[in-house]
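Everyone, describe these structure tokens:
***
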Amino acid sequence: MGTRRVLVTGCSSGIGLAVAARLAKDELRRFKVVATMRDLGKRGPLEKAAGDSLNKTLEIKQLDACSESSIRECVNSLPDRRVDVLVNNAGLGMIGPLECQSIDAMKELFDTNFFGLARLVKEVLPDMKRRQSGHIVVMSSVMGTQGLLFNDVYSASKFAVEGFCESLAVQALKFNIKTTLVEPGPVVTEFERKVYEDAESMDLSGTDKETAKIFREIYLPYSKKIFASLGQTPEEVAEQTVKVITDKEPPLRHQTNRLYMPMTALKHADPTGRLPLDSFYKMTFKHDKVFNATLAMLHLLKRIGGKK
């Protein structure tokens, strides 16, 4: 297989930046990376991360996942419109009590997280079908398989992404097109930091006092502990994404954080849904010592694993 052109979205920071830079610096020079972002004014960190690969194995282009014309213009600018691998990464986050979220904000999130993916796939899929080759790699989340407290809307958008890809994968396979959902758990990025920073000062007047208290005094402190114990770096997620892209038989789903797998395994262990629901409820509201002890153990395992 020759050099493959990889189109990556959401490359101004975080996972998208790390994936683009890692692919561009591939020692075997297997990739030509088209790293895209909505605002080219934010290209500085990517240019720095790309280093000597800039304008050699990596080029930066403008692409707004919320605009069909922007996507088409970007794809049309590529030789033969060829995209061998699409890495859909652009996304928005949202946490907090449902009553405090506006419908407009929910629609904006879905417009990027779900419809952005749909627009991109719709643009590149016909060419991939015609060439009888391609790989659609989608940055999903463990929250696309397991809903979590106060992540109602974000989780819903990732569930939509998972259903979309699972359905499409069957048809795509007929045309020798692979589909992979990359499912990170907590990732320590500027994206996540901003989401939680905004949550600290969120207006909770739209909900009742008990819900506001649960959000501020239980959810936010728990989330910080989870990120501190289980959080991956964007580079760690990028490394696993590259492995998926280079795999001869890539999986439909790939969780990047093995320490988080027991959480998602609960769902598959009980088709009725009672086991994960009961477990998360008790872990959150009744057994905080068990929760803290579990995180401490997982953090230790992560440190041990990192030393190998």
